[in-house]
Design goal:
9 helices
């Protein structure tokens, strides 16, 4: 019997395609993604100084009722709970109006808001989101500003004094949360070439570490 011819769909040993050889690559040779568009060192310095200012403010006299901001912070939740529960029954008894009640409620929230804006800003900054501080700073200062205006409408104009200077220092520390401190600090902007150079330097360092991990690559 004549051998049946192989169909075109049947590949012969000589027709098998050679396997594609891909060059070995390591993670170190890949250009790392970066979102850094400016020098972060001035930003870290300003944020650190502002954090020290917040700590100093919380350690100082806060009001007639609290000798320090940390004491006010420790009682924030209990004070807010009292205002929202028992304080509502005193609303009519004391003859409060809505603005006075809101001012009363905002006061114990001040230290909590100040600390929260700094904690969240530090967290996002370490994750690379340096622009988040802009929103945090605006909220930090706006919350204090609204409370201050409501207080003026109730108690009249007042300024920092020996019994509440810590509150003002803690409020002013929120200026440092802003990426440029509202124009007081200029950030060094990096162009695409400088960012690429930073990526190459990081790659070179990573390749050197990879070589040191394998004794066979050592001379």
């Amino acid at each position: 019997m004549e051998e049946e011819e192989k169909g075109w769909w049947e590949a012969t040993s000589g027709d098998e395609p050679e396997p594609e050889i891909k060059p070995e690559t390591t993670q170190a040779t890949e250009a790392p993604e970066t979102t850094i568009g400016f020098d972060v060192l001035p930003r870290i310095k300003v944020l650190t100084i502002s954090s020290v200012g917040l700590f100093f403010g919380l350690s100082s006299h806060w009001s007639w009722w609290y000798s320090s901001g940390f004491e006010a912070l420790r009682n924030s939740f209990s004070d807010v709970a009292f205002i929202l529960t028992d304080g509502r029954s005193l609303y009519s008894e004391w003859g409060l109006n809505p603005l006075e009640y809101i001012e009363w409620l905002m006061f114990p929230l001040l230290p909590l808001v100040f600390v929260t804006t700094f904690v969240v800003t530090w967290y996002n900054s370490l994750q690379g989101d340096w622009e988040f501080g802009r929103k945090a700073s605006i909220f930090h200062l706006s919350f204090f500003g609204v409370w201050y205006l409501l207080s003026i409408s109730q108690w009249g104009l007042f300024f920092p004094d020996s019994y509440n200077y810590g509150l003002w220092i803690a409020a002013a520390s929120g200026i440092g949360l802003h990426p440029t401190v509202y124009g007081l600090v200029e950030l060094e902007v990096l162009d695409e070439e400088e960012i690429a150079n930073l990526a190459e330097d990081r790659n070179a360092g990573a390749e050197w570490l990879d070589e040191m991990q394998f004794p066979g690559n050592l001379p």
